[in-house]
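An example makes the point: we let one protein speak, the chain in one-letter code, the fold tokenised, and here it is:
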Amino acid sequence: MNGKPVRHVPGRILQVLLLWLLVAPLVASAEGLVAKTIFLVDEDDKVVAANSATGQFFDLPLHAKEKILDRYVANAVAILVTNQRFAGVGSYPSGWSSLRRIADEKLVSAEVVDTSALLVTSDRILTFNGDNGSWFEKRR
């Protein structure tokens, strides 16, 4: 050695450093607590939802003249907006659930996060719960 004394870290500082090393990865991963489990595959006449958590596949057949206008996919929920309906699928292993659109209803905004979705239309406020596959609505 070079003759310099080895400096010791005081016990309290060492405890804080060790605690930070244990907590920091947990805090960093807190945003991603919901695993990515729902994936969508487009086919000619349907959209297939693949649930990697359950190993199930759910087909959403498209009706005559139905066109997909928007799609929103989060970790464990997916929403399709078509010219005829709003369709949602989530982690709950029941498949797709749909609501018919009201005549001339316009989509104003959409937010899809983790296991839930919020759609605001010109006529309604809609929520979709991907944990139980249910739609809820309130007229505007």
